[in-house]
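Entry for fe (ii) ion complex. Fields follow.
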Amino acid sequence: MTASPPLPQPVAESLLRSLVGLGKAQLLYPPGHVAVTRALQALERSLGPALESRSPLLLAKTTSHFLVGGVPTLPDDGLAVDMVRWFASREVEAVEIGPGATAAEVGRFLAWLTSTGSKSWRSAHVRTRRVDQGTAWQRGSRAYRETLDVLEVAYREAQEGRIPDPDRACRCVRSFLEILDEDPDVAKGLALLKSYDRYTFHHSVNVCLLALSLGQHLALPPATLEILGVGALLHDIGKTRTPPEIVRKPGRLNEGEWAAMRRHPTLGREILEAMAGIPTTADRLVYEHHMLYDGGGYPERPAGYRPAELSALVTVVDAFDAMTTHRPYSRPLPLPEAVAQVLWQSGKSFDPLAAEVFRQAVGTVPVGSTVRLASGEVGVVTRLAGDGEIGEVRVVVDPMGRRLPPEDQPLRVVTGQEVLRWVDPLIHGINPHEILSRRP
Ligand SMILES: [Fe+2]
């Protein structure tokens, strides 16, 4: 295959000018504003001839130049300077505009490129290449933020009676699976991220990450993991059809409110059933996530009805994440205590097999727990060994009780025998999530 020649200089210049023009117009004016419409039309006029001469078109930032369809422009050139800055802020190395790309599609890419928000952007004809994908933790954090945004949109769509886009949820699950494949402890650490304001979305993402961790531990096939992940991510989406004053009520619910709340698994199943392309068994999981092993929970079911195995996994991690989260009517339990609660309820509320998989995958002293070692040091669990045993601790406080600066916090391989007990991270001013984010 021979490389096509560079764009004619005037075509490249006109394209670059219209790209920057649209990027700036979208930054300054709302969609539909005359300035944005004109900039879009200008891009339409320059994009057509450019794609005719060279397809796909590559815009790329090199160490010395900004390339537009093979034509080099100096990075401090009046036109390229904005593109170079925007590319750098999004860590984009290159963007490929394929045949069939429209000006509107390129416009959406530019809106993403120039914004600082975490909103994800995807397109069939425009693809980016990242400079540096970063560590598994950094990529996982990005996937986490993008999933929060995807969920927020899905909830809004469901609230307005529209059908959420199933592909977006599936893509989020696939990106989590990639992180899990690379480093399962990263996924478990990310699942510790909480937010009081965005509780519902964080809870759903955490349940998804934890459920996938259990699924991976069971070596479930990829298609089953996808079902598990999508169902876990959307397990509470039925709450969008529950009156918000009931969902957000800080105190205990009265009988009528509780009856309305108990309908959310059924409502959630209806939403998933309408989402074409969602794996069919995911809606069962949403319907069954509050069904307890001993027959308790809800919705009511005929005698002998058994929730699916995947549902039992979600029931366990749903309860675990709720126990470890600060809610209006209860304080969060330390991670090892929440695990102990789950194991104590094994064979009662929770399916014993699901509880055992949970113990093995999440561990009795999970990643992110703060522990005192026999040496007198205090640290945060950063890795598990096989079978849910402690594997590695980042030491944060020395045996004299002195807080170590970040550059002097050693990673120590430890066994369960070296751990005296878990401690409250707040007493030592430790933020376990921050410690975990520094993993190499
Ligand atoms: Fe629920």
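NOTE: The pocket of fe (ii) ion is lined by residues 235-236, 264, 289-290 (CB under 6 Å).
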